[in-house]
Amino acid sequence: MRCASGAASTPSPASCPSPLWPGQRTPGSFPGHSRSSSTARRRPTTTSPTRPHAHTPTRPHAHTPTRCKVCATGVTDPGRRAAVSSRGNVLCPACAQATLLSYRQQLDGKPYAKVRENGPPAQDYLCTLCDPPRPAAAWDHCHDHGLIRGPLCAGCNTMEGHGKDFLTLQGSTAHLLRCAHCRTRRTLPTNHQLAALRRHLHLERGTPGCDWPLHMCVTLIDAGSSGFDCTVRCPGERRNRSVSFQLTPEEADRIQARAVEEGLSDPS
C-alpha cells in the first residue's frame, strides 16, 4: 500500500489516514472544533415547545347515504357490506332489480376461463346471495374444478375466497354445490370443508345467538389419523366454560355429508 507521499510503507493511522467520502470532514477539521474541546464547545440543545396537532378530519361514516344513479333515492346499507355500484353507478335495491338480470344458472358448469374471456360480464347480473339484491361484481367459480357457480357482489365474493364465514350466509352451501363436479361427488370445495365443521360445532356447542365469526369461536387443529382437536369458546364467556374435545375422522365425514345434503335440498 502507498501513502500520500508515494513511498511504499506499512500504513499507520497517523501517516496514512483512512480515505474519506467526498465532502466528509474529520472530527477536528470543522472550524472552531477539535477533539479535545468538542465536548466543552458543544452547542447546548434546546427543546422546542410541542406544537399542537392540527385537526385531522375524520372519514365519513361507512354508511353515509349516497344517491341512486337512476331514481336519486338515498342508498344506505347498514349490513355486513357497504352498497356497491354497477359500473360506477350506485343503484338502490329496487333499481338494481329493475335494471339488472337475475341469474338463472344458465352458465353453471361452464369453465371460468372461457366465461371470463368471451362470456357476459358479471356486472350485468344481480348477486345470487344478497337479499335485498345488490349488483354483482365478479363470476364466482369453484377453485377445485374451475367451473362457474354464479355472479356475486364484491362482499360475498371476498367472503367466499377467504372460506371462513361464507357458510353463515343464507343459501351459501347450495351455491357452492352449483359446481357440477362437487355436486356429483357430493362434497364441498376444499377451502370450505373446515368451515362446515366450524359451523356445525358452533351451532351444537357454542353460545346460542352468538354472532361472532366462526373462526374466532371454534378452533380446529388437525391431529392426523385421530381427527381434530377442537375447542369451542364464544367471546364473552368465562375461560372455564370453554369446551375442548376430539372429533374423529368418521364424525367429521358425517358432519360434512350432512352439510352437503342440506345444500342439495335447499331450494335457493
What does this structure look like?
The protein contains eight helices and nine strands. Among the domains are: 66-162, 3-Layer(aba) Sandwich (His-Me finger endonuclease fold); 190-265. Residues 36-40, 47-61 and 78-86 have low confidence and may be disordered. The chain is globular, with a radius of gyration of 32 Å. The chain is of the alpha+beta class and 268 residues long. The termini are far apart.
The description of the largest β-sheet is:
3 strands, antiparallel
Shape: globular
Task: Report the CATH topology name of the domain at 66-162.
Answer: His-Me finger endonuclease fold
Low-confidence stretches: 36-40, 47-61, 78-86
Strand order of the largest sheet: 7-8-9
- Which percent range describes the beta-strand content? 5-15%
- Seen as an oligomer or otherwise, the chain set is single chain
- CA radius of gyration is 32 Å
CATH architecture of the domain at 66-162, please? 3-Layer(aba) Sandwich
Defining key terms:
His-Me finger endonuclease fold, 268 residues, two-stranded antiparallel sheet, single chain, alpha+beta
Strand-helix topology:
Blueprint: E1 66-67, E2 74-75, E3 85-86, E4 89-90, H1 93-99, H2 112-118, E5 138-141, E6 148-152, H3 154-162, H4 172-176, H5 180-185, H6 193-205, H7 214-217, E7 218-222, E8 228-232, E9 243-247, H8 249-265
Antiparallel strand pairs: 1-2, 3-4, 5-6, 7-8, 8-9
Quick overview of this protein structure:
With 268 residues, this protein is α+β, with helices and mostly antiparallel strands. It has helices at residues 93-99, 112-118, 154-162, 172-176, 180-185, 193-205, 214-217, 249-265; strands at residues 66-67, 74-75, 85-86, 89-90, 138-141, 148-152, 218-222, 228-232, 243-247.
